[in-house]
Amino acid sequence: MENKENARKKRQGAIAVAAGVALLLGGSSYALWSATDSVDAGQVISGNLKLEAAGDSSLMADISADRFDSSNLNFDSDTTELGPAINFTLTDGQKAIYNGVGLSNGIDGDGSSYGLHIDQDNVLVGHLIDDPTTWKMVPGDTVASFSYFTVTLEGDNLVAKLTLDATALLEDEKNTDMVYTVALFDTDGKQIGAFTPLDTSKEALPVAVFRAPSDGQGQGAEDDWYRDSKNNGVVVPVADGTVGVYIAVLAHFKDTGENQKLDNVNVTDKLGAITANLTQVRGGTDNFGGGEKLEDI
Q1: CA 105, 110, 113: angle at the middle one, nearest 5?
Q2: Alpha-carbon distance 144 to 30, whole Å?
Q3: Half-sphere exposure of 141 toward its Cβ, with a 13 Å CA cutoff?
């Protein structure tokens, strides 16, 4: 009996050991040769978009076309804190668009004898108005209010649209013969795009498009043009780091002729804040949508 019992225990022990070996083998894998290495995946850095106003006020100048005592509007940044002292140069053809040609009215609403004043080099001329609260306009006058902003764009595919809140610009508009227009000038004084009629119903009136430099990518075309309101191609200014831009709001008092009513004597158009907004866009320039018009971007 003992021999049989011992034989039975040995068989059970052998089965248990075999099961343990099977478990051990089933729960492992064979380690064949392998090798590992790595390469730096680089880094992803976000860009930047910023818009800042320089100073807390604007400068106003009389730029009437028939004032021949005018001179270049070189603002002294040391005394005005407005921006760099530069000449404001219109793009070719913009004087004719604003003033009109011959008997055709310009966007100022008057004939060609009125409007703004430029010299033979397309440089805007006029004289500063020391105190806008005491200077009084008459029919035929054109004044411009200049504000200076800085634009910062960093990002290889970054395109941004600059808009104005036209509803905030005119707090109290009483002169029904006044026509308002917006123009932009870069930090060198060159006009950006075309004159834009001021639609006071728009909270986001588009006035320009800027782009950041794309130095970080070796391939891909630049987003370097869009179309103005006259369907002309406009080169998109490059904001290489931080650049300055002048926003000019032009006001023209229309001369409606001999029978002009006296409804607009002793009235005041109160100008509010020049509120600008810079917003990234992914469409409108040539490589982000085919070169659309500014108002459609």
Answers
A1: 90
A2: 84
A3: 14
Distance CA 261, CA 215 (A): 59
Unique residue bearing structure tokens 């090798």 = 35
Nearest to 294, CA basis, from 222, 209, 224: 209
Contact 171/270 with Cβ under 8 angstroms? Answer: yes
Which is it for the CA torsion 112, 117, 120, 122, positive or negative?
A: negative
For residue range 269-287, list pLDDT tens digits in order.
Answer: 767 778 888 888 876 555 5
The answer to whether 70 and 117 have CB atoms below 8 angstroms apart is yes
> Which regions of the chain are under pLDDT 70?
1-31, 34-46, 55-57, 74-85, 171-172, 214-236, 259, 266-267, 270, 283-293, 296-297
**Chain position carrying tokens 């370097």:** 224
The three-state secondary structure class of 242 is strand
Per-position DSSP letters for 9-63, written without gaps between them: HHHHHHHHHHHHHHHHHHT--------------------EEEEEESSS--EEEE-
Contact 285, 223 (CB under 8 A): yes
Note the pLDDT of residue 104: 86
Any bridge partners for residue 152, and if so which?
50, 242
The pTM score is: 0.75
d(CA 139, CA 126): 17
Domain ranges, ordered by start, for the chain? 48-257+267-296
Query: Among 177, 181, 72, which Cα is nearest to 117's?
Result: 72
Distance CA 77, CA 97 (A): 30
Residue 185 token pair: 């000038």
The two tokens of residue 148 are: 């200076």
Within 10 angstroms of residue 67's Cβ, the number of other Cβ atoms is 15
- DSSP assignment of 150-200, as one string? EEEEE-TT-EEEEEE-HHHHEEE---TTEEEEEEEEETTSBEEEEEEE--T
